[in-house]
Design brief:
Number of helices of chain B: 15
Mean pLDDT of chain A: 91
Largest sheet of chain A: none
Strand content of chain A: under 5%
Strand content of chain B: under 5%
Number of helices of chain A: 11
Structural class of chain A: mainly alpha
Low-confidence stretches of chain A: 328-332
Number of domains of chain A: 2
Number of strands of chain A: 0
Shape of chain A: flat
Order of helices and strands of chain A: HHHHHHHHHHH
CATH class of the largest domain in chain B: Mainly Alpha
Helix content of chain B: over 70%
Structural class of chain B: mainly alpha
Number of domains of chain B: 2
Largest sheet of chain B: none
Radius of gyration of chain B: 20 Å
Helix content of chain A: over 70%
Shape of chain B: globular
CATH topology of the largest domain in chain B: Tetracycline Repressor, domain 2
Radius of gyration of chain A: 21 Å
Largest interface: A-B, 23 and 20 residues
Oligomer: heterodimer
CATH superfamily of the largest domain in chain B: UbiA prenyltransferase
Chain lengths: 332, 299
């Protein structure tokens, strides 16, 4: 098992990096820095930056002007993600090889391979379907799912002290529900970014000076449509953008209340105190970052930090879940 | 035409018969067979099994290739890739080829029976029949699954090498079989994609001819995914170690990259590069198996 543990821990760190770099690529509008996939203008190594490569690229992709800076950002994300893909394959292979000795199911690692493979496909579709919001949001969720599963695998290696049985039993439904609430809120956040609705209104907590601005939910949350337009092809209205922004704010309120309560309960429980404290700090920071993004008009660093905050919140919540679900796994 | 036999210099005749045996294909076959031998034993392969086994398998494989040339001379004459082969050019006759294949194949099987073991001889004979008759005569002109099923013959050499050393069929040997078996479709269909029109002209029902490009490209990709899973199995079963795992992950990553590009951004030169890479892939994969077999890094 000597190789397995560092591989898993490195993969957790790498996944976090891939998620944040992915957000950075998106915020820098470099998602279409390469018009093709998996190469960049047909190149696997690097991007077209020499004269003959540029000529070839512009011949193969007429009407496109190569922007090497944006292309590099996109390719950096792909190289990191590709490396993660190889690490995850290795993890799954080792999990199968060692299943007899460790007594642990290799299926979670196998599921991870499937998630990452699907992530690669979504990454391709992000490019080929020209940033269709549903694909972009699913790509974010896939990244978060990868992080969550890898965290679980890492925690099996780190083997933290499980919570006492009675406490664990009491916390289980709430911890699991917390994950669901956070997942919905991350999806709503991804939807804001994918639809460029972060600045739908720049006041807070009101939106255009109103608690309930004019909103068009039907078009805002129509899943299958192109970027910036309704399913019918008309430009997405301000009301639709309002609805997207407002929903993420409402979601934030629910998430803050639910996870806040969960964190406070954990804080009052000795065996879960650390997890509760971390969760609470991250939660407050994340809400603060969200508000700051609206008021300061989405500066790059804050927007990327808001994405990183979501990943860290998820990680903290996975730790809490692991601590309270661990015992049940052991007794099986 | 027998007069042509005498009228040409001996060296030219020899090279024509030599070309009938498809030396480049046979060399890859023999390479995988020899590695099968080395993987079958923790130490050095007994010299007799190594020499006689390699020779016997090589001769029988050459004979199978010659029979393939014989049966397919009509197709070969139509396709530019194979037009220059000895039979379509009339340099050797059908009867000469048949006799040549009989002698070479017979010698190969005799060597295996006499100096290796009976099981290897029978398996090699079965592989010969599988390739020269079942694949070439029956499957190839009949179904677009020809190379998938026929791939079983191409996948046998490491098993033959293995049994040449141990005298029995081992599970690990079957894993090597599985790797080549899963490798054959993406390897061959990459070729068939850029040779589609020639296959169509020759009336061979290759997958791109019968089911179209798009369908074939998807299948290249899916088989490459299967290949990736299969090639991880020697590591999973503890047949191989970390060196093999690292090598095969990189090899698979490149193959997947080619397969994805074949699927999303097809071009004939790309298919040619994929085909060439697939050969390099199998060579390096077996080399990695061999290196890993003798140099073990503890996990």
């Amino acid at each position: 098992m000597s190789l397995y543990r560092p591989l898993v821990l490195c993969s957790v760190a790498l996944t976090f990096l891939v998620i944040v770099v992915g957000a950075y690529v998106r915020l820098e509008d470099a998602g279409l820095g390469c018009p093709d996939w998996p190469g960049c203008y047909g190149q696997l190594i690097g991007v077209p930056d020499e004269a003959h490569e540029l000529a070839k690229a512009e011949q193969a992709f007429p009407g496109k002007t190569v922007d090497a800076g944006r292309a590099w950002k996109e390719m950096f994300h792909r190289y990191l993600a590709g490396t993660l893909g190889l690490l995850v394959l290795a993890i799954a292979a080792i999990a199968w090889r060692m299943r007899g000795e460790t007594g642990r199911t290799p299926w979670l690692a196998t599921l991870l391979v499937a998630v990452v493979a699907f992530q690669a496909t979504l990454g391709m579709w992000t490019v080929t379907m020209l940033l269709k919001p549903a694909i972009v949001t699913l790509h974010l969720l896939g990244g978060m799912a990868t992080l969550a599963v890898l965290m679980w695998l890492a925690l099996r290696e780190i083997n933290p002290q499980p919570a006492p049985a009675a406490i664990a039993r009491a916390f289980r439904p709430w911890a699991a529900a917390g994950l669901a609430v956070l997942a919905v809120q991350i999806a709503l956040g991804g939807w804001v970014s994918a639809n460029y609705a972060a600045l739908a209104c720049t006041d807070f907590p009101s939106c255009h000076g109103q608690w309930l601005p004019g909103m068009d939910f039907a078009n805002a949350f129509h899943a299958v449509r192109e970027l910036g337009v309704t399913a019918a092809g008309a430009p997405l209205s301000q009301e639709a953008l309002n609805a997207i922004q407002w929903s993420h704010r409402a979601g934030a309120l629910v998430t803050l209340a639910f996870l806040g309560a969960l964190a406070l309960c954990a804080l009052r429980t000795p065996s879960l105190r650390a997890a509760g404290a971390v969760l609470l700090v991250l939660l407050v920071a994340q809400v603060g970052l969200g508000i700051a993004n609206v008021l300061l008009r989405v500066p790059l660093a804050l927007a990327a930090a808001h994405n990183a905050g979501a990943a860290l919140l998820l990680a903290a919540l996975v730790v809490l879940n692991f601590t309270v679900f661990r015992r049940a796994n052991r007794q099986d | 035409m027998s007069s042509s036999l005498a009228s040409q210099p001996l060296a030219t005749r020899a090279s024509q018969f030599y070309r009938l045996t498809k030396p480049r294909v046979v060399s890859l076959i023999v390479f995988t067979a020899v590695i099968g031998m080395f993987l079958a034993t923790p130490g050095m392969v007994p010299l007799q099994a190594l020499v006689a086994g390699t020779l016997g398998i090589a001769l029988t494989a050459g004979a199978a290739a010659a029979v393939n040339c014989l049966v397919e001379q009509g197709i070969d004459a139509i396709m530019t890739r194979t037009r220059g082969r000895p039979l379509p050019r009339g340099q050797v006759t059908s009867l000469q080829t048949l006799v040549f294949a009989g002698i070479v194949g017979g010698a190969g099987l005799f060597i295996l029976y006499q100096w290796v073991n009976a099981l290897t001889m029978w398996l090699t004979l079965a592989t010969f029949v599988g390739y020269a008759v079942i694949y070439t005569v029956v499957l190839k002109p009949m179904t677009p699954q020809n190379i998938v099923i026929g791939g079983a013959s191409g996948a046998m050499p490491p098993v033959l090498g293995w049994t040449a050393v141990t005298g029995e069929i081992a599970a690990d040997a079957l894993l090597l079989f599985l790797i080549i078996f899963a490798w054959t479709p993406p390897h061959f269909w990459a070729l068939a994609l850029y040779r589609k029109h020639e296959y169509a002209k020759a009336g061979v029902p290759m997958l791109p001819v019968t089911h179209g490009d798009k369908f074939t490209r998807l299948h290249v990709l899916l088989y490459t995914v299967i290949l990736t899973a299969v090639t991880l199995m020697p590591f999973v079963t503890r047949m191989s170690g970390v060196i093999y795992l690292a090598a095969v992950l990189l090899l698979d990553a490149v193959f997947l990259w080619y397969a994805v590009r074949i699927y999303v951004a097809y071009s004939d030169p790309l298919a040619q590069r994929t085909f060439r890479y697939s050969i390099l892939y199998l060579t390096l994969l077996f080399a990695a198996l061999l290196v890993d077999h003798y140099f073990r890094i503890p996990l």
